[in-house]
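Blinded run. Sample ID left blank on purpose so nobody reads anything into the name before looking at the predicted structure. Input follows.
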Amino acid sequence: QIANANKSYGEDIYNWVGGKSYTIRMSLSDVLTFEGISVTDWTEMEVGGGVAEEIPNTFDATAMTPEQLNAAVTEALEYGHTEISVTLAADADATMFSAITAALAADGIEEGSIDLTISGAKTVPEYGFYYSDNDDKNIAGDKLKSLTLTDVETIGEYAFSACTYLESVNLPQVVTIGECAFNDWKKGTKLTSLNLPNATTIGDWAFAYSSLLTSINLPKVTSIGMHAFGYCDLRTLNLPEVTTIDGEAFLNNYNLVSCSAPKATTIDYYPWGNCSKLETLELTAAGGFTLGNNLFANTPTGQINLVLNKDKESQVTQNADGTATWKTTNSNGGILEYTFKSITTQE
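Blinded prediction complete.
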């Protein structure tokens, strides 16, 4: 069995890797010359001194201690596995998640190289995958390339904060996503799309600064927190069940073209601030709105086609130049007045 080592022959350096079998072709003359080396996966074969077995990358940790889980994941990573799958107990606590993050935080693991799947656990605790090096950097989370949480329903605050190389997530059962769950100050992810089929609540700053995020699917979400998708690159928003949109929820999505929120009735300040390409906005809920003091900071409403419920007709004035003005009140009783490219109403 060959352990990890470097062997130098003349000017060439060969990196022997544990767990691999090597076929070496050589010729003999005045000097020993390698004509080439081929490397194949070494699963199990007889060698001098015993049998070499492949190190697993899938673990049932329901009966493991945190120390045992850490040792198992560490060994798999040292072997070179980049796909890690762990089954935890449904009520797994923070120590079990820390066991995984401590292994990921080790030196020698490439950033953005690990595909991690966690099954069984129902909750990821706050800061569950945040492992700092005291330099404002998540040295465990930065190793993640993809994340699958097959059974998790709740993701705690800062759970995957500053996982800056994370490209994809699969969260089929997640219902609640806490504050800053996938974001730290100006440190989002590399997500380009997001599908949350069962989520109902997105916390403050949850996905902020994910500057590559262009599309989201939130069919059941009812509440979107402050800055939840601020500083992303969303193009269209379909929010069929959302009733509450907190302040600056979509701030600085410069390429956002359309937004439909047919059930939204509570909308705080600047949700569409700095959305300079916004052209269509549908706010068709019946009844009164609870509105912040400004919905469109630095967003030109003169290019927006607004759709309201028919019960708002008395608040709308059609202007001689073809534009239309919506006059309503904010939650403090102050007057809100905006002129749009057009305003239509519907039942």
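Unblinding after everyone has recorded impressions. The mean pLDDT is 90.
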